Amino acid sequence: MNILIYDINYAPELTGVGRYTGEMGAWLAQQGHSVRVITGMPYYPEWKVHKQYRGKLWFTETIEGATVNRCPFYVPAKVTSLTRILHEFSFVASSLIYWLGIFFAKRYDVVICISPPFHIGILPVIYTRLRKVPLWCHIQDLQIDMAKELKMFKNKNFLKLLFLIEEFILKRCTVVSTISEGMVRKVAQKNVIQSTCLLFPNWVDEFSIKPLPREESLRKELGLSEHDQVVMYSGSLGEKQGLELIIDAANHFAVKSNVKFLIFGAGGAKSSLESLVKERNLTNVWFHPLQPYEKLSALLATADIHLVLQKKSASDLVLPSKLTGILAAGGCALVSATPGTTLYDIINRHQIGMLIEPESSEALIKGINKALSLDLSEIKARARLFARNNLEKQAILQQFERELLALQNVPSPIEESVLPI
């Protein structure tokens, strides 16, 4: 197939949507498909364009068989609701350079648009309508719903406008998919899509991310002793996680010199977290940058407990992608989730982690205390088994490819289908 992927994030970003879209593009290219990607400069989660891409304008590179068209765009030093809107619209405007050429070039067999940002679907809708091409919208994050729940926008008329734009896009998609059962329900409840919302979960490469013994972890490199008990958070440091609770917990455990809190990542909330650590004179919290993908297994093997935190208002509007790696590495995740959400149900049903109440310092402290006192070997074994049976990269992408191939013979929305989880 001749495939066009449109996404603001792409490889070589190490976390979030960009990593999954990058792996998707590379995998499809490896299967013999012609893959073209229109994307921005790598910037996430640091919110700073990566060094090797700074100062560049529009240019094309090849990444693992996929042709990648890069666009310059505005990346704010401080992320606010307003600067994020400007950031996202600047990408759409910048990408017009490529889209103008695409309208008069060889017809693509399918266009895959990755959301968020939700509104980048406007250009694919115009193209696919004019050229009579199937449009697949894959939702990694219900962005407007999240903004509403987190009260990022107070103007109700503006929110209404955003939902109308979202409805315009989703109504004109041949396929709409998302990453969790709860998000599938949320999309279905909008009553705007033309066919069943597909479940297309984020995956993990079980051969690359696997359990390692403690001696092969990064403990020695990080200056940790064999007696240290490590509580780790790794990933994007954003507002929707409520990460200030980690600092509250670290303050509680400050009297225990062998309990260390390691935070790996970058994002809009990092500076405020560092300020909290400084204000409380904590010496048991260490900040580190994200590690290269090839060191991920060693990084995950460093922790006794992994934190997967999110706010109540984010329930079923996003599914933390960091969980897939933790499970594949046979880690024990301490997860804050609300009963009835996909995240809660998966952890509870399969007993592959420990659950705590969201947005509660007391619950987090109790959860850490309990986890540090238990033999977690059975939880870790179940976590690895779950990842192998349900999140295996090859199986999920093969099913995705089958759905793509089916679109070649389907001029209208495809029949009901659900990808495995």
From TrEMBL:
Gene3D superfamilies: Glycogen Phosphorylase B
Xref: InterPro entries: Glyco_trans_1, Glyco_trans_4-like_N, Glycosyltransferase_grp1
Span of domain Glycosyltransferase subfamily 4-like N-terminal: 15-203
Positions of the Glycosyl transferase family domain: 216-380
GO MF entries: hexosyltransferase activity
Ranges that cross the membrane: none
Keywords: Transferase
Record has Nucleotide-binding as a keyword: no
Keyword Transferase attributed: yes
Pfam families: Glyco_trans_4_4, Glycos_transf_1
Name of the protein in question: Glycosyl transferase family 1
Native source species: Spirosoma radiotolerans
